[in-house]
Amino acid sequence: MRRHNGEVLAAVYCRLSQEDRNKEHEIDESRSIQNQKSMLVSYAESNNWKIYKVYTDDDYTGADRSRPAFNELLRDAEAGKFDIVLCKSQSRFTRELELVEKYLHELFPAWGIRFIGLVDNADTENKGNKKARQINGLVNEWYLEDLSENIKEVLTDRRKKGYHIGAFAAYGYKKDPEHKGHLLPDEEAAEVVRRIFMLYASGMGKTGIARLLNAEGIPNPTAYKMKKGIRKQLPDGQRGKLWQYYVIGDILKNEVYIGNMVQGRYGSISYKTHQNKPRPKEEWIRVEHTHAPIIERELWEQVQDMLQERTKAGWNGQAGIFARKIKCMYCGYSMVSCKTNGRRYFKCSSRHVCKDYCKGGFIGQEELEATVLEELHRLMQQYLDVDAAEQLLMVRNERQKKIGELKKSLQAMGSRAADADKALKTLYQDRVQGIITPEEFKRLSEGFQADFRRYERHIEELQQEIKKLELQGTEERTKRDIIKQFSEITELNYEIVNTLIDYIEAGKRDGHYRNGKVPVVIHWRF
Fold it and tell me: What is the mean pLDDT of each run of 10 residues along the chain (526 residues)?
């Protein structure tokens, strides 16, 4: 063990999660950070180890990789600032099997760090209990998965009952301090919402409303929450605190303002990540009359009719082929479509809500279409080689056949791994119910563990081989093969634009060269 000036330095890590706060017994040590700290410090002192630092994460789950103290500890461990990481249990450090393997069994030994979980006897210096640590990691992984599903079921049930689920109430409302999940009107913001609806109903557009609110210095929803101390910083990816036309649009379409709760529009990808993805509209949870409305039904319906009519007008014919594809080259905001003297243009939304914010991208739709077609034809000439593509066909067929065989083997190996995993779970349940002793569980599970690891290694090898073959196919499927599908294009439509283009950046024509082209950067999907 590495020593610092003749002393062994121990880092103490304590974690308390929300689930611990709901324990039934007040004397349960996991309820209190102080109890964890006291127990671990006493253990260190009894072994004559000096405490380097106590790292504490309060109200974080064992699956949260963004825990601040946890990540600080890992950085200090890599820097060699201490010799031992001391926790109440392995699950206090992490509940993820992947992190158990990464740190306890790989990086910590490489860094000369010893890990000790006091309650569950996890000790990386004891080579004999590595399998026990792996089993604990697997059990914790099952716990996380089951906990995630239980939480989802509870939240779904509360949404179906009309309770508000979320960190922040919609702009115009505030959380009821006496009834969890209930919303109350926030009169200061509600007055702005009413004004937005009245302005739109009177004929003012979304951009015009945004420009008016910015000119009057009215904070947008995010800035308002920061002003009230409800949130401390801007959300990730948000550029500023200006009102934008799409923020106005979201308010005008939100049923919360007529007393309805619409939730569940996004769902998590996995219990291991905070990333969400949109859900189909039919899966949204909609409950009417859950709170007091701040917009009268008649005004709401009038605005919805106007929105629908303007949407139809904006998407008529060629007008919508670049929808949600055009961004300002100078500020990155989406450009909006407008029509003047029968001709359609795209202009920067930020430029028209705050004139000093950016130079303001501006381009005519006809010029944009011509630019995209010209660039597409140039790519065709550069990459379109039909003969070479046909020569690759035989090679591709052989590769696809091999990939198909490997995937069948992968499926079979996955079934075997699932069987071994199921057997381990059954054994674990038998141990919990007292059907078998811990010693019998350890002995019986070793065989399943060995099988499971062997299947996992084989699965990983098959996946790597499949990935290698697919990557070869991807590299050979150059731009030529994609462009070939559109080799006869003479006119753009929405399907072509959506298939070929990720997004387009447009700038502004130089005032000194009015006949010059607007700078355009096309980000292709291939």
Answer: 73 77 43 79 88 89 82 93 90 80 86 86 72 54 56 74 85 91 93 93 84 89 86 54 84 92 72 61 87 93 84 48 81 79 80 64 89 82 52 57 78 78 75 76 75 77 77 53 59 74 86 71 81
Instruction: Identify whether the C-beta of residue 60 lies closer than 8 Å to the C-beta of residue 91.
Output: no
Contact call for residues 430 and 440 (beta carbons, < 8 A): no
Nearest of 419, 414, 448 to residue 431 by alpha carbon:
448
Task: Pick left, alpha or beta for residue 430 (phi over 0 → left; psi -120 to 50 → alpha; otherwise beta).
Answer: alpha
**3-class secondary structure per residue, 123-168:** ECCCHHHHHHHHHHHHHHHHHHHHHHHHHHHHHHHHHHCCCCCCCC
Rounded-to-10 torsion of CA 63, 64, 69, 70: 40
Q: What angle do CA 163, 165, 168 make, to 5 degrees?
A: 120
If you ran DSSP here, which 8-state letter would residue 88 be given? S
**Cβ atoms within 10 Å, residue 442:** 17
For residue 389, count other CB atoms closer than 10 A to its CB.
17
Angle between helices 206-215 and 187-201 (to 10 degrees): 140
Alpha-carbon span 43 to 31, nearest angstrom: 19
Q: What is this structure's pTM?
A: 0.42
Residues 403 and 57: their CA atoms lie apart, in Å, by 46
**What letter represents residue 364's amino acid?**
G
Contact at 8 Å (CB) between 185 and 191?
Answer: no
Which residue type, as a one-letter code, is found at position 511? G
Task: Classify 478 as helix, strand or coil.
Answer: coil
Beta strands 261-263; 173-175: pairing state: unpaired
Q: Helix (H, G, I), strand (E, B), or coil: what is residue 519?
A: coil
